Amino acid sequence: MTLLQLLMLDHMGAGRWDEAEQTGRRGLELTTRHGYALFAHQFRAFLAMLAAYRGDTDSADGHRRAVEAWAGPRRIGYLTQYANAVGVMTALARSDHATAYRFATAITAPGEFAPHSQQAPRTLLDFVEAAVRSGHLGEARRHAQAALAAGLPALSPRLALVTAGAQAMTAQEEDASGLYEHALALPGAALFPFEAARIRLAHGERLRRDHETTAAREQLEVALRILTDLGGHPWAERARAELTATGVGIGTRGGGWQSLTVQERQIAQLAATGLTNKEIGAKLFLSPRTVSSHLYRIFPKLGITSRAALRDALDAGTVPPDEG
Known about the structure:
By secondary structure, the chain is mostly helical. The chain has helices at about 1-15, 15-35, 35-55, 55-75, 75-95, 95-105, 120, 125-135, 135-150, 155-170, 175-185, 195-210, 215-230, 235-245, 260-270, 275-285, 290-300, 310-315.
């Protein structure tokens, strides 16, 4: 079971989320069938985090509550802390930053990285984002500085990336751009696409606020592409909204019908008829979540922002009718 867990976590970190979900569901099924409750709840916790990454907050909440209900009475601290980490990410996906900060401070106090708390360093970027966006900038800065003092960047490439991202998110205006550029230039940044894209998104948001429109567009366009490809829908929507706010007409930037793969064309045509993701998946032998991920890749290619616009795109000839 440990091998399956490590494989799932490796897939998650590298952005191979479909593979991560398949591995996690297999692990959950095996451990449940054989009565390995501890391992089963570990897989459930990992699946909860993956669902939160994707913005499937109902699934994330369901898994998290199941983990809390089982681990809490047994005082299995690392599982209850993981459940709190899921709570942070789920609330961030909902843009409920006050709740995200509440979950974050249940893991660790601002400025503290206790040795016994596995999730304190792992949730550094989430803590800082929740703190900044909920009006706790001082606490966010203290936490980012504590990460440096604790030597987190030396422990792993991921911690080096998120520590640098946290420094940039909490920096004074005149220092922020340089720190963002430093974070994104780290050798390990490409290994962790979700974290790097979130840092890039925050950089684009800061640049837009500073009226550096061209530079903001460059960061936001890359962030949008990566987050859309990953299936990190809430963050992709944020990037799309920020890009629109720079004056970019998303509808004019898609590659059109020719930019879609064969499978994307099939999904677009079926979705335009009003079929649900589950119904499309049944026809194409895909999971509903995979269909959802494909749709979020399709939208920017067709220059649209919602499922409802697919029919208009079809009628306008952006998506040609199925010749088969």
